[in-house]
Structure formats: C-alpha cells, structure tokens
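Give me the 3D structure for Protein kish.
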Amino acid sequence: MSAIFNFQSLLTVILLLICTCAYIRSLAPSLLDKNKTGLLGIFWKCARIGERKSPWVACCCVVMAFSILFLQ
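Predicted structure for Protein kish (72 residues):
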C-alpha cells in the first residue's frame, strides 16, 4: 500500500523528511537556505521544524520506532 493511503506510513515519511532536512541543514546550511520559497521551500520549512521542535521530533521518532518494531 502506498504511503499516501496508509496514515502511519505517511507520518513516518513526514517524520523522516523533517529529520533528514534538519540533518542536511546542520551539515550544509547554504544548501537549504537559498530555497526559502517555492516548491523547494518545503525542505527549508521541514528543516526549521526539525531545529525548533527538536525535543518533540525526537519523542515522535522514539514513539514511531517503538510502534513499527513492536506493534506491527
């Protein structure tokens, strides 16, 4: 089943996107900072969410990992 139609898979993809964008921005800030608008601005926004809400994102990662490993 596609990640679009399965809610848990969609949340996993969004969470991985936020974590990946925040990690890429920590390594190479200029890569994401030059695209703040448009379609590529989504990645910059995900990086900002990952930076500002990092304790919440980390808790969500732990909960998602637990649910994938033990509840599926």
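The chain has one domain: 7-71. Let me know if you want a second pass.
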